[in-house]
Amino acid sequence: MTKLTFLGTGGGRFATIYQVRSTGGIYLQDHVRLHIDPGPSALANMCHLALDPAQTDGVIISHCHPDHYADAEMIIEGMCRGGFKRTGIVVGSTSVLKGENGFTPAVSSYHQAIAREVIQVSNGEVIDVAGMRIDVTPTRHGDPAGVGFRFHTTNGIISYVSDTGLHDELIQAHRGSRVLIINLTRPLGSRVPMHMSTEDAATLVSEVHPEAAILTHFGMKIIHDGVEKQADFIEDASGVRVIPAEDLMTVQIENYIHTLLEKVNVR
Ligand SMILES: [Zn+2]
After folding, report:
1. Residue 153 is inside which H or E element, if any?
2. Domain of 152, in residue numbers
3. Residue 199: what pLDDT?
4. What is the CATH number of the domain that holds 248?
């Protein structure tokens, strides 16, 4: 079975600053365990769900905005047993690992040195992380070096578009995906450049036509306007099942796609 656990479904400046929703990224479990975009609250939410950072095989960071990387160094320390075992893989855009376009590196040279391997990625590359093929996909966003990913799991391809506006190359890059995870940042009637609006997400989902689309990374305006409303619009427009993710939700992917939301006592 392949599992996606949403350690946070918020994103953007103010939903992150005020933790209106958590912003801990996505934990992917297949034959490997990968932590994608561990923003603030990643570590705390792993703790709530009893997920051990020492079991993580790879930390993957799509771009150099803090709602995607703020907890990365602590997750890397966990993966490397406090820095005492050189293990695990860190994957990031050039902006995240090297610093670029006004961004300084989001992961220190110390934390890059304690991992067994560090892979700097750009659009179009194909990498192997602990035996899983990952395709690196394009984005158009405030960090020009940002990327998205396609994970070739044992239950089909899972796409993570990351933060991006809609463009043709994005649609082409994600064709053939079984599950399409979309960082939805702008609700109906409020499209802005370099961000994914509900209308554009409907086009993306219609064109890619996955088995299911999962919406996450909601900003204040979407949370205020209603997440379900955006999901209904995209589902009606595309005919594809749309799942609006919730904090600590798990999506299980095998022959069928199930969602689970366990009640957890949050300290
Ligand atoms: Zn961003």
Report:
1. strand 147-153
2. 2-261
3. 98
4. 3.60.15.10
183 pLDDT tier (thresholds 50, 70, 90): very high
Q: What is the pTM of this model?
A: 0.97
Taking the centre of ligand 1 as the mean of its atom positions, its distance from the CA of residue 54, in whole angstroms, is 27
* 228: in domain: yes
- Band of pLDDT at residue 74, cut at 50, 70 and 90: very high
Q: Which two tokens stand for residue 48?
A: 């709530």
**Residue 267 resides in a domain:** no
In the predicted model, what is the mean pLDDT of residues 25-40?
98
Whether 182 maps to a domain, the answer reads: yes
The token duo for 79 is 């993966």
Q: How many A from CA of 83 to the centre of ligand 1?
A: 28
Rounded to the nearest angstrom, the distance between the alpha carbon of 62 and the centre of ligand 1 is 9
Residue 115 DSSP code:
S
Number of folded domains that form the chain:
1
Q: Looking at residue 86, what is its pLDDT?
A: 96
Ligand 1 centroid from CA 142, angstroms? 7
Say how many Å lie between the CA of residue 12 and the centre of ligand 1.
7
Tell me if 193 sits within 8 A of 165, measured CB to CB.
Answer: yes
Q: Is the residue at 266 inside a domain?
A: no
